Amino acid sequence: MIILFDLDGTLIDSTEAIVGTFHYSFDVHNTAHPSDEAIMALIGYPLDIMYTELGVAEEKVWDYVATYKEEYRKVSTLKTELLACAIEAVQKASLIATLGIVTTKTGSYSEVLMEHFGLMHHFKVLIGREHVENPKPHAEPILKALEALKHETGEVWMIGDTKLDLISAKNANVNSIGVLSGYDNEESLRKHTDIIFKDALEAIDFLTKRKNNN
């Protein structure tokens, strides 16, 4: 079995780091700030799409992204927390499957975070924004992870907290589980998967029972 995890809202809570860094970037570029709620509603999308949706002109988007990345690198480990279930979920998952991370976050920063939390050694692959041309909801991030794990066998499951994760899984023709620990609500997730749990730990408990019964 292969289990692929999203990060934000699935294993980690980086809301403070993300929202704060967005506000920092709008300060640097002397632009009116969006609301916290507007920023949070877009978490999970690539940064360039988030800035575009927040009203930044297309020709300036990558300047904002560069400012964001420079600041985020400084604050990410200080202002990010593991979700309460994350350690147990990852540890249990590692007993039944080969694990990977598929995220729209910058992969290098994501690896630093997972090392900081002492979890990176559980994952055989990490696909971040810089590793693909087409981020989630495109199939490419999941397919790239599976290519790196091509010698592994069994079912493939993607666990994520937004429709982007679930649509990406559907496009890649793999199974998906939605979790309610992050940024999308159940109504949104239900449109793209029939399997929804409170958090990643409940999802792993489900997959453990499934594997034991097969």
Tally the helices: what do you get? 10
H and E order: EEHHHHEHEHEHEHEHEH
Share of helical residues: 40-55%
- Strands, total number: 8
Instruction: Using the coordinates shown, work out and report the CATH topology of the largest domain.
Output: Rossmann fold
What is the domain total for the residues? Answer: 2
What's the alpha carbon Rg, rounded to whole Å?
A: 17 Å
Mean pLDDT comes to 95
Strand content: 5-15%
First-to-last CA distance: 12 Å
CATH architectural grouping of the largest domain: 3-Layer(aba) Sandwich
Report strand order across the widest sheet: 5-4-1-6-7-8
How would you classify the helix and strand content by structural class?
Answer: alpha/beta
State the oligomer: single chain
Reported for the largest beta sheet, the result is:
6 strands, parallel
Low-pLDDT parts are none
CATH superfamily of the largest domain: HAD superfamily/HAD-like
Give the overall form.
globular
